[in-house]
Amino acid sequence: MKQSLTFERAKTGLLLIDFQEEQRSDPLYAVAGFPTVLANARRLLDGARRNGIAIFHAAYKRDFSRVPPRPFEPVTKDGSPGFSDVTNPATDICSEVAPLPGETVIIKNDASAFCEGDLLPALLQAGLEWLIIAGVWSEACVAASVRDAIAAGFRVLLVKDACGSGTEAMHETATLNLANRLYGGAVADTARACALMAGKGAEVWAAERPAPILFDYDNAREHYLRL
User: Fold this and answer.
1) CB 158 within 8 A of CB 14
2) If exposure means fewest CB atoms within 10 Å of the residue's CB, which of 73, 78, 155, 158 is most exposed?
3) ∠ CA 179-136-68 to the nearest 5 degrees?
4) pTM for the full model?
5) From CA 179, how far away is CA 185, in angstroms rounded?
6) CB-side exposure of 205: number of CA atoms within 13 Å?
7) Is residue 205 reached through a cis peptide bond, with omega within 30 degrees of 0 on the bond before it?
8) Torsion angle of alpha carbons 79, 82, 84, 90, nearest 10°?
């Protein structure tokens, strides 16, 4: 259902997840519509900087010297990480959303931005209630981070058009699945999220009960567009 929302900016943070060069340069990990998703993430980042919103960046950099290979994890023939190798320059955060001095950067070895244990203390120290989340891939690192944020007691605003995956269908169904159990949180687009960061009210989508959206192959996009 749709409801009106306002933010207390001092208690709001922005988390950008895995906006890295490999998402546009590596054919195996390219995100569908990445230029648009990245541009929307930049709009969020600009809005957060302009309005004094706490900013957190997360990047997936697989480093076996920090976290050894997990059972069944893909590796190359020489035993290096099968993806997002920390030594690969393509794991750098995209220049369009590169962190500025003073903005928190979390380097992670698993899907969730909370996995290394550095993010939660930073969020608690900042005294946040709401966490605005954007990133890639929607069904993987974004979903894991959203669920961990909720479990840690934060309200999540998922910015649907500043997230993406390998295909539009993957992104849209992932967003619907998250929306179905986004307890205490909401879904909005970039324009509404920016309005909220600016101290204005905005209409967002919020679940009134578990699994309010029962979607199928032929109507998933229609439901997604209604969020």
Assistant:
1) no
2) 78
3) 115
4) 0.97
5) 9
6) 20
7) no
8) 90
**Sign of the C-alpha dihedral computed for residues 134, 135, 137 and 143 taken in this order:** negative
CA atoms of 30 and 137, how far apart (whole Å): 10
Residue 7 three-state SS = coil
User: What Rg, from alpha-carbon coordinates, does the chain have?
Assistant: 17
End-to-end CA distance of the chain: 8
DSSP 69-107: PPTT--B-TTS-BSSSBTT-GGGSBPGGGPPPTTSEEEE
Burial class (CB in 10 A: 0-12, 13-18, 19+), 1: exposed
User: Order of strands across the sheet with 186-188?
Assistant: 2-5, 202-205, 186-188, 155-164, 130-136, 12-17, 54-60, 104-108
Give the C-alpha distances (Å, rounded to integers) separating 32 from 35, 36, 162.
9, 9, 12
% pLDDT > 70, the chain? 100
Better-scored residue on pLDDT, 82 or 154? 154
What kind of fold does domain 2-226 have according to CATH?
Rossmann fold (3.40.50)
User: Given this model, what pLDDT does residue 26 score?
Assistant: 92
Residues 130-140 pLDDT 10s: 999 999 999 99
Q: What is the pLDDT of residues 215-227, one digit of tens each?
A: 999 999 999 999 9
User: Cα(74)–Cα(51) distance, rounded to whole angstroms?
Assistant: 42
CA 109 to CA 177: how far, in whole Å?
24
pLDDT, averaged across the chain: 96
Q: What pLDDT is attached to residue 144?
A: 98
